[in-house]
Amino acid sequence: MLVQISAQQPGGRQPARGPDPLVAVDVLLGLARPARRLVTRTTHIVSTVAAPPLRLALHPPGVPATLHPARWIDALARSGADRRELLAVQASGRADVLVPVVVDTVLDRLDLTAVVLERVDLDAVVTAVLAQVDLIAIAEEVIDGVDLPEIIRESTGSMASDTVRGARMQGISADEAVGRAVDRLLLRHGRRAVRPPESADATTDATHPVTERAP
Amino acid sequence: MEPANGGVSPLPREARPYQGQRAGVVTRFLAAAIDGAVVWLVLAGAYVGYAGLRFLFDPRGFTFPDAGLVFSLLAAFAVLVVYLTAAWWLSGRSYGCLVMGLRVVNHRGGRLRLVGALVRALFCAAFPIGLLWVAISRENRSVQDMVLRTSVIYDWQPRVDAHGHGAA
Question: Looking at the partner chain, which of A171, A178, A203 has a beta carbon nearest the beta carbon of B19?
Answer without folding.
Answer: A203
